[in-house]
Design goal:
- By secondary structure, this protein is mostly helical.
- It has a single domain (about 5-335), classed as Na+/H+ antiporter like fold.
- It contains 13 helices and two strands.
- Strands 1-2 form a two-stranded antiparallel sheet.
- Strand 1 and strand 2 form a beta hairpin.
- Helix 5 crosses helix 12.
- The longest helix has about 35 residues, at about 205-245.
- The chain is globular and about 55 Å long.
- The chain starts with a helix and ends with a helix.
- Keywords: Cell membrane, Membrane, Transmembrane, Transmembrane helix, Transport.
- It comes from Psychroflexus sediminis.
- It is a multi-pass membrane protein.
Length: about 325
């Protein structure tokens, strides 16, 4: 696990501090950045998210899908948890805590925004970091690749209907065209570009060069883009956070419970199905973690840089690594 991934929470905290500082110093002089948009998709954020997502998508080898029938129980479990359980349990926990239990501490408008961010986060299962979690728990690498590849294809079909359905349930109106544009810009285009690049570069330069040279040079681009996006986000969110610092803790509660809930329910169903440890573990990990880059981008597109929904997705990044590392330790302790 690289230093950046290992200390992601620290980088997020530093990005929060830096962003808030820039927001306080620059003030209204950076407000024009939030207005640079097409169909409500913010252009600076679109560029940065593209720089984040493309390095992930270029690693996906869709030829691995020919092995999809192998470990069919594990694949079936992953699909059921990711698309029939996870989005709805996230919406439930977010509603239960942010709208009900914490209602005395949050005004209704903020609560609805935070719930929207949680819903977007829950509808986007992990794409890239699951390779790290699988590796750290000695998961089956080929199985992990198959489930991630299949998950990305299903994401193209189900992400919009699920987000639209669940946001509608919370009475939040969303522009349907913006949601479609977001999926095209942040998933379809980088996924297509990644697939074409993968095939072309491996054929021309070889797999060893692709892994050791190309991906190594691409990785810092993704890191810089992620941190820059967070700094930009918090430059606009700074006053909200300074006024309501307790909100971050309140948002983290349902997100944390959701992560452990999805891991445990997947893990114990996998044990019941008699899945091998190296299949059960990545199945549990992909559902527990999130495609937070996509979630941040979509939340910004739908609700704006200074929205509570965007803040909620960033809280997801803040807690992701510590929680997932605790689950890695647990999975290794429970090795069977």
């Amino acid at each position: 696990m690289g230093k950046f991934e290992r200390y992601l929470t620290l980088w997020v905290v530093l990005a929060i501090i830096t962003g808030i500082g820039i927001g306080r110093l620059a003030g209204d002089s950076i407000a024009f950045l939030s207005d640079l948009e097409v169909a409500k998709v913010n252009i600076p954020v679109a560029i940065l998210v593209w720089m984040m997502i493309y390095p992930m998508m270029v690693q996906i080898d869709f030829s691995s899908l020919k092995h999809v029938t192998q470990n069919s129980k594990g694949i079936g479990l992953t699909l059921v948890i990711n698309w029939l359980v996870k989005p709805f349990s996230m919406a439930f926990f977010a509603w239960l805590f942010l709208d009900q239990i914490f209602s005395a501490y949050l005004n209704p408008e903020d609560a609805q925004q935070y719930i929207a961010g949680a819903i977007i986060l829950g509808a986007a299962p992990c794409t890239a970091m699951v390779f790290v979690w699988s590796y750290l728990t000695k998961g089956d690498a080929n199985y992990t690749l198959v489930q991630v590849s299949l998950n990305d294809l299903i994401l193209l079909v189900l992400f919009i209907p699920i987000v639209r359905l669940l946001l509608g349930v919370t009475d939040i109106e969303i522009p349907y065209d913006t949601l479609i544009y977001s999926l095209l810009i942040f998933v379809v285009i980088p996924l297509a570009a990644g697939y074409i690049s993968n095939k072309y570069l491996i054929k021309k330069k070889g797999l060893a060069w692709f892994n050791s040279v190309f991906l190594a040079k691409l990785k810092p681009v993704s890191m810089i883009a992620l941190i820059t996006t967070l700094v930009l986000l918090f430059a606009f969110q700074g006053q909200r956070i300074l006024d309501n610092p307790f909100d971050i803790l309140l948002i983290a509660v349902p997100l944390t419970i959701q992560t452990y809930f999805i891991f445990f329910i997947t893990w114990f169903i996998g044990r019941y199905l008699k899945l091998k440890h190296n299949i059960c573990t990545p199945s549990a990990m992909i559902g527990a973690s999130n495609f937070f880059e996509l979630a941040v981008a979509v939340a910004i597109s739908l609700f704006g840089l200074n929205s509570g929904a965007s803040l909620a997705t960033v809280v997801g990044i803040l807690i992701e690594v510590p929680i997932m590392l605790s689950l890695v330790a647990l999975a290794n302790r429970w090795r069977y």
